[in-house]
What does this fold into?
Amino acid sequence: MVYRKYSIPLAFLALFLLPHSSLFAADGVITFIIGSVRVVSGGVESSAVIGQDVFEGDTVRTGSDGLAIVQLSSAGELKLRQNSEIGIDVSRANAATVEIRRGGLFSRVRRDFAGDFNVRSETVVAGVRGTEFFTAYGRTIDDRPDLWLCVNTGAVEVSIAGTDQSTVVRAGEGINIVAGTRLTDPRRYRWTLDLNWNMDPALGDVVDDTDLDRAYSDLLDQDYD
It folds into this structure.
């Protein structure tokens, strides 16, 4: 299989963070692509291109051979694995929120970002400052999809909307939120050691080919009661 690889020099990144030619400023920019990556903006779907602005309400999705890296204004970076989809809720100087709808997502939050950074699904919110973590969504134990994550640096507070359930997941730990309604205890999982956290193509391979089915089996082996 032949991958299409593109990158954008960091020196030119600032150019793409300038206000969009319309009345609205961009909430982010796509800085790296491999394979099939699509963007839905204003109800119109198109193939993503390097330097493409993304805005609040946009969707970014990758195909079976796809990977995308998105710079979110001043908040940090996102890396989408293959077969993944996110929605850009908001990316401002004091707040950034991303919805994960399926697949795997790496998030790196700038340590000097003074606002709140959240990754959410239908019922779960993961809130952080100055950290790096991975989330995966879509596999199931019960009828509804699970959300699971692990933390590489810093800490992530995970909470379930409408309940008093919350916990803090620290560096080296992972957690599963069963059906988006029940928190498990943070633990160290073997599969987290295999994740490729790199988001800078200049430093080497950015593709993460961790076997998420095996990772999920590792989660199922734990006692969630």
